[in-house]
């Protein structure tokens, strides 16, 4: 007897020949890559190499000029704007350098905001786990202005985790933090991969931050020019120098 098994793609997000033009500038120039489920990838490259454009196209924040971006099996180009917004809110998490918390809302409301916007109720067990992981259990009723930068970024990580997204994109999340707070935030991202199989894509300039990832993808002039597996900060620096 023959049985048919439908295999889910091993990639949380895959890109095929993705290009993005700004006028005559090809900010991305034929990028093909897949982010394996349960992997932690750092994206590095010189200023202007296309990292932000890459992140925006891969995460559906922006539409490429050419090529295909898929979240699992879904081709993002086939989605209307409202569908793309909903998909981003429900299935993709974001952590930005500037935290992007709502100043008038307390920690709990900030963390659960994506659920509220999607008309979903919090899974209290998961919420408790996420709050515990980021170490904010005793701060749930504080406003962002009452927290340090590192604490605010941990709230932003919790907000990204609360919907159990298929992938989290983090854009320079530790750039404004001191090394200790940065380490705390990076450890949270690492644990999300190791403990709950999360997929993380981290854009960073910092070799020490990139060393938390499973691999580093190097961009140059809008193309993928190299990959470093099992990176150390020293190896990242060395590869950077030889780019
Ligand atoms: N909105 C835009 N309009 C015109 N050109 C743009 C726009 N966004 C990016 N570019 C150009 O595309 C190229 C890639 O920019 P991008 O911001 O993706 O690089 P980056 O690697 O993130 O740089 P940085 O590390 O400085 O943030 C650059 O030449 C940039 O000038």
TrEMBL record:
Matches recorded under Gene3D superfamilies: P-loop containing nucleotide triphosphate hydrolases
Domain of life: Bacteria
Residue ranges of every copy of the ABC transporter domain listed in the record: 13-241
Keywords noted in UniProt: ATP-binding, Nucleotide-binding, Transport
Molecular function in Gene Ontology: ATP binding; ATP hydrolysis activity; transmembrane transporter activity
Keyword presence, Lyase: no
GO cellular component: membrane protein complex; plasma membrane
CDD domains (UniProt xref): ABC_MJ0796_LolCDE_FtsE (cd03255)
SUPFAM superfamilies registered for this protein in UniProt: P-loop containing nucleoside triphosphate hydrolases
Keyword tRNA processing among UniProt keywords: no
PROSITE patterns for the chain: ABC_TRANSPORTER_1, ABC_TRANSPORTER_2
Transmembrane stretches, start-end: none
Name listed for the protein in its UniProt record: Putative ABC transport system ATP-binding protein
